[in-house]
Design a protein that fits this description.
By secondary structure, this protein is mainly alpha-helical. Helix content is 66%, strand content 0%. The protein is built from nine helices and no strands. It has helices at residues 10-23, 32-49, 55-64, 75-89, 94-106, 120-131, 135-149, 153-162, 174-198.
Amino acid sequence: MNVLRGMCDPHKLEILVSIAKALYEKSIEHGIHHVERVFKWALRIIKEEGLNVSFEAVRIATYLHDLGRLVGDPHAYYSSLIGEELLKEAACNDNVIREIILAVEAHSFSRVKSAEKVNELGKVLSDADKLDALGLVGFLRVFMYSERRGRDVVSTLKHFNDKIVKLHKYMYYEYSRKMAERYSERTNQLLKWLEEELT
């Protein structure tokens, strides 16, 4: 369902998406390919859970959610600031802007909030973003992120133990939780193989 029809300028929304695509890197880590995978996960969640969440709102929120990484941390906060200005330029009404920005603000692991404070769109975006951090894709992404940040292997393994292997606990939906548990098994197997080869 496209609830943004009549609430934003559709031509300007497409310009917003084009701007976002141009700003993201091509990297599998947090680039445009990550954004596209998150969007696919979000659509699966909506379908499997039978949610009444706008396809267009999810698409826009997904394209905005990591733009703040161009600025730094906390990236969700900076993404919300950038997103708000782009949505204003797209002539979106205040309600649409508020819903999308709330979702962008709430998606980050470091900004996990209680379910009561996160809108439906934010829950979908949060789950979809976390699902892309698991499995083989997530495994590769963590090492790319670590390489970029100058982390050694010990620090990277600590990141897996402190954050990645716990992501399934922070899912809002049953489908997300089921998929997170399945992909976490892959992550744990990859970690086991890695540790065997390092010893």
